[in-house]
Every structure is written in structure tokens, then in C-alpha cells.
Specification:
Structural class: alpha+beta
InterPro entries: Ribophorin_II_2nd (IPR055375), Ribophorin_II_3rd (IPR055374), Ribophorin_II_C (IPR056790), Ribophorin_II_N (IPR055373), Swp1 (IPR008814)
Low-confidence stretches: 1-10, 96-101
Strand order of the largest sheet: 12-11-14-18-17
Strand content: 25-35%
Oligomer: single chain
Number of strands: 20
Keywords: Endoplasmic reticulum, Membrane, Signal, Transmembrane, Transmembrane helix
CATH class of the largest domain: Mainly Beta
Radius of gyration: 48 Å
Protein name: Dolichyl-diphosphooligosaccharide--protein glycosyltransferase subunit 2
CATH superfamily of the largest domain: Immunoglobulins
Number of helices: 6
CATH architecture of the largest domain: Sandwich
Order of helices and strands: EEHHHEEEEEEEEEEEEEEEEEEHHH
CATH topology of the largest domain: Immunoglobulin-like
Subunit structure: Component of the oligosaccharyltransferase (OST) complex.
Number of domains: 4
Family: Belongs to the SWP1 family.
Distance between the termini: 134 Å
Amino acid sequence: MISPGSRRSAYQYVPPDDGTLYFDEKHVDGSEYKGPLTTTASVVRGVTAFAAVAGKLNIPGDKMLGLAKFFLSIGVPGSTKDLFNQIDALSCLESNRQVEVTTVFGSAAPPLTVNLVQASSYDKNTPVLENQELQFDTENNIHYLDILPLKIDVGKYTLEFEISLHDPENLNIYATGGRANALAFLTGTIKVDKAQIGVFDSDAESAATMQKLDLSQDNRISLAANHLQMMRLTFQLVTPLGHNFKPHQVFLKLRHESKVEHIFALESSARQFKIILDFLGLVEKFYYLSGRYEIELAIGDAAMENSFLRVLGYVDLDLPEPPEKASRPPPQPVDPYSRFGPKPEISHIFRSPEKRPPEELSFAFLALTLVPLVGFLIGLLRLGVNFKGFPSSSVPALFSILFHAGIAAVLLLYGLFWLKLDLFTTLKALGLLGVFLIFVGHRTLSHLASTSAKLKTN
């Protein structure tokens, strides 16, 4: 712990579990909290400045490497001040040449050897490879190991590396950080072998008739079962070297026609994966839903290059009727994008038209509707209607013509309303014609009234 006397605070050394080292500020009073990045950068700058004055400080290499890991693991800080502290601290470490194969800023490392001390299976923790020296590629500046001749199987492995410098004088300049561990996946194609599926009675499992499955092809099987029967699925997973493979995820899914899904995990036993579904014990879980169930098999692992989710076929289940208090299937989630898809076609059958009267009767009715019009015309002739009262002057005659044309336009508008126009359009046009008729009609009637008054005076 380093305590500056000018401030009532303390720098606390914190060693995490992942190999990174940093300093954090321990509160003593209400002073402003700086955070581990600023605090660690201040310590690195102070130690570097002190080393420049003292000439040399004997600080263990793993401690300096832990500080470098801390600054590199932060990424890009959220403020410019933290970014400056990060780069400044790394530049101090760069000047002191604390490296692990490369320096913290990626500068070229001195001549060294990278040795794979041990490669162990992650699950079994058994070593499969020991003491292998990595070859160096001068063009790409990388160390590599050709594992193809070593016959290492597919799986997850823990690798332990050790770096040794060629020149003993560099031991006082560079810090390699000791042994470093890494997690690696060796991938490959897994073969699904001896896959079989079948339905059998609960008391005759040994006599079950199994169907072979070829998962390399898109072949689908068809099964039928009732609630007194069982369904069995078995298969093996084999690595390229012929060993059994246990993936991270193996699931069997049954999906009903109503989109209700049921997922079952498969366990490995006796060098194979096996699952037996007893439909009698699953009727409540299946909500007593009879019908077709789609069978899907999902196998996945980070080391398996051919992980898949494949439809094996379907099984028609005949389950008993649900009791009154049986639980109902949960509502299925609605796809939010389904409303943008095609809508179902609307099919509508119009009712047959009603029976109409004979054509002769329709024409007779039309003739009867024209009788009042004919009578009106005959009445006009009997009364001696003439155009003697029509204005002779140009302006009154023009208004009279416009007045009669407006009346004809109203009659034409009625006819159009009967044939094609709607009510609102007709009312708008009728309103405009009404204003026009009021104006020209008033002028026409005023002229007729003045003419009649003059005749009476004379």
C-alpha cells in the first residue's frame, strides 16, 4: 500500500483472479474518487519516474505483466482523460520492455521459443499432448503447431504455453509472464450413426419395430401411436477418429399442429443417445391434444462443424379426451411481423337476385309514368302558351335564357343523380346552381314585373 502524505487517501493493491493487477483508491475522507484506471496509471507513472532517478527497480516480471493485462483488457475507455491515462501508462510499460511474445504496443519481441507444455481435455482433464515446441513463421511473425499428424480428436482443450528467451541477457530486460493458459476448440465433422426410431407397446419394448434414419439425407418418417404406446429414438455420435462424441446440446422437439411445442433432453448412456417417450405419462403435458406432431432433432456443439436442427418426420398421436378440469394449452406468441404477410383470401357468395317482373309489365309501367308529362304538354297547348312575353331587350333576354338554362341544368342534375352521382356530390352542385338561379331569376322576374306595371299604367 502506497500512501501519499498530501492527501488523505490510500492506493490499495488489488490482484484479481484472471492475472491482471491494478491499484484502487481507498476512501479515507470525502475526497473525489478517481477509479482504478486513473489510480493505476498514477502508480505506474510514479514508479517509472522513481526508477529513472534511482536507476533500477527490481519488480517481478509477472507483476508488470499483470499491469499490462489490466490496461489492455479495458478496451477503449469512456472518457478522454481515461484514454490518456491508459495510453500514457502503456507507454511507460513499453519503455520498460515488459512483453509476452510481443510488447504491449505490439513491437517485435526478441528471439524466443514458445513451447506447448500440455494440452488437456477440458472435460476429463487428461493430457493428450505434452512438450511440443511451436514452429516460427518468419513471414507472418507467428508461432504455430501442426496438429494433423498428432491425431488429436475433436473436442475442447486447455492449452498451457511457456515462453523461453534465447539470449540470457534479455532475462533482465523482458518479462514473459511465466506459463499462459488458453482455451481452444478442435472442430470437425461428427457422424450420426445407427439412428433408429420406432413405436412399440409399453409391455413389448424388445419386440419394437425400429425404422432406420439416415440424417445425411432429407428423408422423413411417418409414425402413429396412441396413449398406451411409447416412442424410442436411439443414435450414436462418432468423431473422425472413431471415438464417441458428447455434444453440448441434444434435444428432441415435438410440435403439435396448433404450434404447441414440447422439448426433451437426450442423455448419453452405453455409448449411445437414447430417449423413450411414454405417451401415457405425457398426456397431461401434451394437454390431451391429439393429432399430428412434427419430430425435430437438434444437436449442437462448439466443436461440431455440422451442428443441425432437422425434421425427422411426424407422429400421429391418438390421445384420450381431456377431463373437465384438464389444463389448457398456453396461448402461443404471435409473430409481430405476421400482420405484414399475405392475408387470407376473402370468399363471398352473393345471393341470387330476386325474381323480376316480365319485360312487358316494365314497359307498361314506363308508359304510365310518361302520361303526366304528356298531359302537361297538352295542357300548355290548350292554354295557348307562347313566347310573346319573352323579353326583347338584350340584357333581360340574356338573364331569361340563363334562368331557363339553370332550370334545365337542375333537371339534368336530377337525372345524373339517378344514374351515377352520389348524394353529397349532387347537393354540392345543386347548391351552386341554386345561388345562380336566385340571381338570374331575380333579374328576370324584376324585368317582367316592371314591364307589367308599365302596361297597366298605359
